[in-house]
Design goal:
Blueprint (H helix, E strand, L loop, with lengths): L3 H5 L2 E6 L5 E6 L2 E6 L2 E7 L3 E7 L3 E2 L1 H9 L3 E5 L5 E5 L7 H8 L4 H19 L7 H10 L3 H19 L16 H23 L18 H7 L3 H13 L8 E3 L4 E3 L4 H14 L1 H16 L13
Helix pairs in contact: 4-5, 4-6, 7-8, 7-9, 7-10, 9-10
Length: 310
């Protein structure tokens, strides 16, 4: 596990392989990115938190071994940003933490906190435009189970999307369907945010499949889904900002008759847009995960964390 001071110096390395004959290798404690035999970039292993590789390239076993030794996680992603494999550095032996996770008796309380946190951050983006703010908070506080919370969250999120995205030709939120460019871009941004938070949670040894709001489900990292919720506003804000800055070009996308797709050679552009937004809040996210770790270990001594978009 790393401290905040160490984390401040860490960086995320993104490799978008648009050409053949690309590879990464180790050289004098540096990760070196090569294309056609030429060195394109290098970064010290001491400064890397994680490496995201989009597309296909050659990677050596020596590099993998040294990434593990330096505590660097590697995520292998398809061109559509789906993670298909990972080599993650995590505190697997932290059985005391996992015991706390599985014996938790305050799942509903924690669920209410993240739903409330998400709602308040959405209200901040809307400049507190929804007059029923206090009513929603009371509904969250008085929810009797997670299913009730899901209904409350779904209702206020629907209103949020409709209001906040009204100037960018908004239709409705349909995750993973890619029915329009906005849904596709939100999927991309949320996916990167999810993987970033998932990486931090694993550094502490959490069982990311054991959530408290999102329940156990085969192959779903429910805990990572939980912790993402208060931070989704980062991606929401960036989407609107990118439209306002004219960064989003409809000619970058293709429609195959069923769904929108991002052109292969344009993916790097949108990767940069969303990850810069995430990195702007990297200390906030780290502090949240660290505080959550302390809370799970001793919820009588420590408070449940809050992310304030302000």
């Amino acid at each position: 596990m790393i401290s905040l001071n160490d984390f401040k110096e860490k960086e995320i390395l993104f490799i978008n392989t648009s050409d053949e004959n690309t590879k990464i290798r180790l050289e004098n404690d540096n990760v070196v990115f090569e294309k056609e035999g030429n060195i394109i970039n290098r970064l010290s292993c001491y400064k890397i938190l994680a490496v995201f590789i989009i597309g296909d390239l050659t990677i050596t076993t020596k590099l993998i071994k040294n990434c593990i030794n330096f505590g660097i996680s590697i995520f292998l992603m398809k061109n559509n940003f789906e993670v298909y494999a990972s080599i993650e550095c995590k505190a697997e032996g932290n059985y005391l933490l996992r015991k706390k996770q599985y014996s938790s008796t305050d799942d509903l309380y924690m669920s209410k906190q993240i739903v409330k946190n998400k709602f308040l951050n959405q209200q901040y983006l809307l400049n507190n435009a929804i007059n029923s703010k206090n009513i929603v908070i009371k509904k969250i506080d008085h929810a009797e189970d997670s299913n009730s919370l899901l209904g409350i969250e779904g209702s206020f999120s629907k209103d949020f999307f409709k209001e906040y995205f009204k100037n960018i030709n908004w239709y409705k939120r349909e995750p993973r369907t890619k029915i329009d460019i906005n849904n596709l871009l939100l999927d991309i941004g949320y996916t990167y945010l999810f993987n970033y938070i998932d990486c931090l949670l694993r550094l502490y040894g959490f069982d990311n499949y054991k959530g408290f709001y999102h329940k156990l489900f085969f192959q779903r990292k429910s805990l990572s889904c939980d912790i993402v919720e208060p931070f989704r506003c980062i991606i929401d804000k960036q989407l609107v900002k990118s439209y306002n800055l004219k960064q989003i070009n409809i000619n970058d996308f293709e429609f195959d008759g069923h769904r929108y797709m991002l052109e292969y050679n344009k993916s790097k552009k949108y990767t940069k847009i969303f990850f810069e937004a995430i990195i702007d809040h990297k200390e906030d996210i780290f502090n949240y995960v660290y505080s959550f770790y302390r809370y799970v270990c001793d919820n009588k001594k420590y408070k449940f964390p809050i992310f304030n978009m302000k």
